[in-house]
Amino acid sequence: MRTILASRPARAGAIAAVVSGIPSTVHALLTGRDILAATRAAGTLLPRRHNQPGVAAGLVAHVIVSTGWTAVLTATARHHRLGATGGAIAGLIIAALDLGIAAHAYPAVQALPRGPQILDHLVFGAVAGALLGRPQRTDQGTTSTRSPGFSEL
Question: What is the pLDDT of residues 65-93, one digit of tens each?
């Protein structure tokens, strides 16, 4: 039986979600800031937690947001090969939406240093785009460049 991470979009999203926090974590370490500040701030995105940052809530919110954006990138990859470059561009668009528009409603998110957050989004998009666009092994031992989720009738 295949696990849930056996699907290409799930694997791409999980890997991208994990590594996407590297820029803000490195920035926090280099500047002496709290390395969990972004995680806590993400917790305020959950319903009824607007003014209640928290690590556990932040992890849940990060999984939900990453899953949603992975679904968008997966749908995009069905029609356009993203690759790392296209994914990075998508990550910047996601950053504009997440940080430029939505963050205004969430003071804890708005208080985070903007540059590292933008880089986190760029890394998420680049990694997801690269993993979603890689050729896939077929049962016959050949490769296919079809985007994930595509099926023929």
Answer: 999 999 999 999 988 889 999 999 999 99
Q: What DSSP string describes the chain?
A: ---GGGSHHHHHHHHHHHHTTHHHHHHHHHHT--TTHHHHHHHTTSTT-TT---HHHHHHHHHHHHHHHHHHHHHHHHHS--HHHHHHHHHHHHHIIIIIIGGGG-HHHHTS-HHHHHHHHHHHHHHHHHHHTS-EE-TTS-EE-PPTT----
C-alpha 76/C-alpha 94 separation (Å) is: 13
- Which pTM does this prediction carry? 0.82
C-alpha 92: how far from its chain's center?
A: 11
